[in-house]
Amino acid sequence: MFMISVKNPDSDSNLPDRPVCSVCIANFNGIDVIGPCLDSVYSQVCDFPVEVIVHDDASRDGSVAFIRKHFPGVELIESGENVGFCVSNNRMVARARGPYVLLLNNDAALHPDALATLHAAAESPGSQAIMGLPQHDMQTKQMIDIGSLFDPFLNPIPNLNPARLHVGMVIGACLWIPRVLWNELGGFPEWFGSLAEDMYLCCLARLRGCRVIALSRSGFDHLVGKTLGGGKVVGNALRTTLRRRALSERNKSFVMILTFPPPLLQLVLPVHLLALLVEGVLIGLIKRDMHVFQDIYLHSLKEIFRRRHQLRQLRREAQTGRKTGVRDFLAPFTLIPHKLRMLVRHGVPRIE
Length: 352
What we know:
The protein is α/β, with parallel strands linked by helices. The protein folds into 2 domains: 3-222, Spore Coat Polysaccharide Biosynthesis Protein SpsA, Chain A; 232-351, no CATH class. It has helices spanning 34-42, 63-70, 85-95, 114-122, 179-185, 197-207, 242-259, 264-287, 290-306, 308-319, 326-329, 338-346; strands at residues 3-4, 21-27, 49-56, 75-78, 100-105, 108-110, 129-132, 135-137, 143-145, 148-150, 156-158, 174-178, 211-214, 220-222, 232-234, 237-240, 350-351. The strands form 5 sheets. Strands 1, 2, 3, 4, 5 and 12 form a 6-stranded mixed sheet that branches. It has a 4-stranded mixed sheet with strand order 6-14-8-9. Helix 6 runs parallel beside helix 7 (242-259) and helix 7 (242-259) packs across helix 10. The longest helix has 24 residues, at 264-287.
């Protein structure tokens, strides 16, 4: 039996005031996906109260009117301007009342026992952890991952081993976190904009001695690539977009600089920067389009230089209170670069 928070007029008036879980959904022009997403939340089979918060990021497609009409129990935050994914989630968690928060993409749909599964694991002894669920393709229902591992350059590698509990990161499309831990970590860096903010949060949590766990039970369906386009294999070829790749390369570099413990950063960062430069030149030459090099790879290097003072200060803050040594931090890493695997398997990515 699903118990929604007392804000829902259809719910039992005797339910406790405080929800156990706050489901936070960032929405921008998602009128074609937000309905199934919210339906999946309201269809949960669980015995604890839940509140649902949606931050609408200045949508222009009638999303606000749609949510108000069809989901009157939702606590709706309307933004007067487009502020981005990170700011949207930070605002919702600041409003959340539950001790647990589930960040959920508007293009994702929970399996019916998702909240119950996450809550049961969170209530087990010593489980101060970020958690995720198996991710399935919305259209094919094929499993995409059970969390992700990393290669040396922080490229996510899909974990398909259900016996592996501890991972490098779980995707922000369905990310469960104790609200206390979120506050301790400081939430998402708002200047990231989008992409790799979940990687940052998970890496910072692991640096501070907390676990990142991917449960093998239940799951969620995700319309991958809906928001930024690309980012998936189509017809045995990897497709992405210029914007997605630029944000990804830039923000992964930021995460590395902020969270890699010494001396790991001093060893990996120079190789990473050189690899970006070489990769960008080679892809530009192969595609006969140096805009790819300039707009993705050179842009990332320029951004690192431009923000070097800010990154240096934020690194000091991130490393404060570090409880994890290099060996433990590297536990979910593999040695073989994931991009090399993907190049052998799918060829040079198509960048649209």
